[in-house]
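Input chain follows. Return structure tokens only.
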Amino acid sequence: MEEKSKVYKEMRKIEEKLEETSIENAKLVGHQNLKQKIHYHLQIKMENTQLKEQLNKVRNECSKVKQELENYRQGFEKPRKTFDLNVSKENIEPRPMSD
């Protein structure tokens, strides 16, 4: 009976030690995951910054191209002088032909 009691007490100690070790292990794993989360978050922030820079570059290029296109269009849309083909170049009236 006494031996059974000793074994039971030893088993409780081992179970308590197991519980403490499990809690400590969970804390350690949690810290590692936190570091991984921080590292991943930093990667996402860096990628986000790079994408913002790319977007700004593309926007600038787009506005330059739009401006060039507008300048090109304005070059072709300038008002041109119109000529009245019914008006003679000379300021004299035509004379009737003599026979």
